[in-house]
Amino acid sequence: MRVPNSVVLPVGTHVDCCQEEEVAEKTRDIMARIAAMLAERKSNLAHFIDNLEGSEEPKFYVDQWERLKEMESCTLMILNLVAVNCMDHHDIKKLEATILEHVKDEELFPEVVRVLPPVYRQVEAAIVDIAQSEEVADHGMMDLQYLLNKLSQREHLASLGRELLQDILRYLHRIGLVVWYEEIKHLESTIFLQPTFLITMFKLLVRYRLVQQLESIS
Questions:
Q1: What is the pLDDT of residues 172-210, one digit of tens each?
Q2: Got the DSSP string for the chain?
Q3: Per-residue confidence at 3, pLDDT binned at 50, 70, 90?
Q4: Would you tell me which of 10, 93, 195, 214 could form a disulfide with 81, CB atoms 3.0–4.6 Å apart?
């Protein structure tokens, strides 16, 4: 909701636990809930903006107003939900084909036809090589400057500058090869070369009924 022109593909799993008519019913229900959530968000934002504009001293709330207007301008495209049985390889391939079909849609992703400079591919290949090397810990966390130094040691990347590397890292973050929380002050200098490590960590920390599980421990 905070990323401009986002495209979201809802995926429903555990189809094998449902009857066929249940899948269709649940799909309709989920899409209706999403639509209601987006409508409520739009209404809330408009309400907050109106309140700020109608305040006695609106000049004191310019920063808040600008943030709300920016959020209001973020469009969100919700694609049709895909229901899959994660135990069925055919369903996984179906999901993969659906994702690829959408990604190649120039109306959804205008930048899909953008031609990247060769250095982007060179840095991507080098980062993959570094991430797979034995010297990198399993968590894959690496300081930005250290990563730049490692890349600069490669002959064809000797002239790589910090600013260009940051542009490339933003691209690699968008495609999911690395994770870089540059907007978070305490993490702006940390690159996660192994996104799967974060997924594993989040699965341990963010889970169903976590509070109840913690309370059950004596």
A1: 998 889 999 999 999 999 999 998 888 888 887 777 777
A2: --STTEEE--EE--GGGS-HHHHHHHHHHHHHHHHHHHHHHHHHHHHHHHHHHTSS-GGGGHHHHHHHHHHHH--EEEPPPEE--TT-HHHHHHHHHHHHHHHT-TTT-GGGGPPPPHHHHHHHHHHHHHHHSTTS-TT-EEEHHHHHHHHHTSGGGTT--HHHHHHHHHHHHHTTSSB--TTSGGGTTEEES-HHHHHHHHHHHS-TTHHHHHHT--
A3: low
A4: 10
Higher-pLDDT residue of 168 and 135 is 168
Which CATH class name applies to 118-201? mainly alpha
The candidate with the shortest Cα–Cα distance to 10, out of 71, 73, 99, is 99
Does pLDDT of 168 surpass 90? Answer: yes
The sign one gets for the Cα dihedral 99, 25, 1, 128 is: negative
Q: What is the residue type of 41?
A: R
